[in-house]
Design brief:
6 helices, 6-stranded mixed β-sheet, alpha/beta
Amino acid sequence: MKKIKIISIVGVLILAILSIIWASKPRPISKNTKTVTATSNSDLSFAVLGDVHENIDHFQETINDLYTINPVMDALILNGDVVDQGLDEEYRSVEKALEKNEDLLPKTIIKNIGNHEFFDYKIETNSKEQVQGFINKYLEFAGEKKVYHDKWVNNYHFISLGSEDGNSETMNSVTAFISTEQLEWFKEKLAEKYEKGKPIFVFLHQHLDYPNSSWVGVQQSEELKEILSQYPEVVLFSSHTHRDLTEDSVVLNKPFTIVNTGAVHYTIIPDSSSENGFIRDRSFIKGVYIEVNGNNVTIKGRDIKEKQWIFSKDISK
């Protein structure tokens, strides 16, 4: 009899522990949840997320939070390193999360390529054929024909650039390569339906420059800056560095604007006591939310874990 009681108690304890674990996992919120308190009357609203790295728990928290901020958002941009490796199972994992949250997500989801889309950690250096194989997997996932592509959302131009090589004999594992063909395409797209003062939104996973660092984000950084300097209307979103979001995450008057998106997977925090001078804080989840009214753009940095705004900056060209 005692044995049966002990087994029963153990069983109850196991069920209680499992219930706690289940309750703590981030899950899709109800579309009709009372936590949805905000909407937007703006001409355009969208969010930009960098470096998900197939961290589905953090991604789910982010989707839930963005829905509470604005359940009628126009677009979501996944700005590269959506997966940690360019493997079929990782793409399927992210696709499953997107499908599960279809009712909480905008109809327009733009998926950009990063450097981790060129990775299989079992492959030390990609051959030319392997590079193309990784690109093909990305294109299938993104529903695009090339790693660079564009879309008009609510009559605003969204232009995505992307590296055409990675972790190979011809390109290292972090820097973006932008071909002459892509640069010419970019010039054409910036000029397409151009209106002086009207914002143009450009996305590239890697950064153009990184102050006080020898880390080169884009091999053709100078060429891109020369093109962009002709369009002060451009707001360029970059990810890749996993830098924390602060007021300095928005850089004005280049003459274009540069925005660091923060990272969903983890954030790099300076720490003088650590061996490398920094730590990777995996508890942080950061992203940016944007509202546009006419030619006026408001960029907000979001601490998704704490459900708080970090900063808000207004831009008018």
